[in-house]
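Checklist before submission:
- one chain only
- standard amino acids only
- sequence pasted in full

Submission:
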Amino acid sequence: MTPVDERKQWLTRRSFLSLSSTCLGGAALNSLMNTSAMSQEQSFGGVPGIPHFAPKAKRVIYLFQSGGPSQHELWDYKPKLADLVGQELPPSVRGNQRVTAMTSGQLSFPLVPSIYSFDQHGESGAWVSELMPHTAKIVDDLAFIKSMHTEAINHDPGITFFQTGAQLAGRPSIGAWLDYGLGSMNQDLPSFVAMVSVGSGNGGQPLYDRLWGSGFLPKKHQGVKFLASGDPVLYLSNPPGVQSATRRRFLDDLARLNDLTRAEYGDPETETRISQYEMAYRMQTSVPELSDLSDEPQATLDLYGPDVLKSGSFARNCLLARRLAERDVRFIQLFHRGWDQHTRLPSGIGNQARDVDQPQAALVQDLKERGLLDDTLVVWGGEFGRSVYCQGKFTEEIYGRDHHPRCFTMWMAGGGVKPGVTYGETDDFSYNIVKDPVHVHDLHATVLHLLGVDHTKLTYHYQGRDFRLTDVAGKIVEPILA
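Returned file contents:
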């Protein structure tokens, strides 16, 4: 429905209410408050007709590695580089590709192979670095995409591109698109949750709330950020001296006032305010129960590693992600900061890998053991990769890498993805794609497809045209689908 049509609908309703008794508005409000009496469409929202076809996944857990993890040190094994240490990156390989301002002034671009060893694992024979020993054990559940590429060469536009399908801020995030199109599967928790953890090495790139925002979609579709300490959600607890019954009466009266405002002015954001107040009230019970890990067996806590009880850690957030998935939260996004290693990369990436390796492997294993992996799509990756040449002073043991958007690695698991496969191929320098490129829009189109959504048909009319997550591009990566 376009904003103009939505406005007409409210104007018609206002006219009807003005000719009717106010009991109709009261009945509508009572229906809003009494969730047990609501129909499925009212309860869960979404656009009529979506999903467009039977989905393979019901929910998504997106493990976003902010800062640009190096494919050289983790996933994309290039043994021939060992014979080229310190040699110049051939002009034929670099071509006319741009580099960042941080290395554009360098007179030399020496090749530097990873100091870490790689081995093949599982029946699939996937190559994995020694930095990821736990993830190496689950490679037969993963689909590696070695040929991801993007246009963005700096962090903010790169991260924004992966979250919203555009490099400039202002578009809805992928989780907001899904909440708008598919609606919620749980009335007591948000449909879209974001959590942020900070790596052991450094704070990393800043992450803004707009990355899980709703853009030009109604605000009710924006993600809810769970905090690392205190109340998981801001202002979740009642103020001192305010009892739950008092808060309930306050919300009932406030909803009636907002309902009158909605009928008078037809602003759809008024409905958002009503629904968000109600969600906040329900979360006062559901969120504390969710975040209380005392009911988790010790074996499960051990599976996620020593940091699982540390507030704000990636390990704890992975376990919370599984608990959110159990409660049918639609889109769960974990941001892990600190992958931006321009200098002294080996020590920095070692800390980052220790942060994420065991928890992410545990998450996939835990979902699988509980029967949730079949309909839960797990996605892992950052905003771009890292260059094969050294940034700054070159040594074989202490080196750095610059941003490299031309090719990098991501992986997916569960939710209709074919397990134990590797898709795409890069050259001997992991500098260019030689087979099966996958763009950001292609990734988004594939994620939506697995959720039963035709990415060309999930649109929203704004400022005179229909927008979509994949803009005017995007193709489904069919070979990785089960």
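Reviewer check: The first helix runs from residue 3 to 19.
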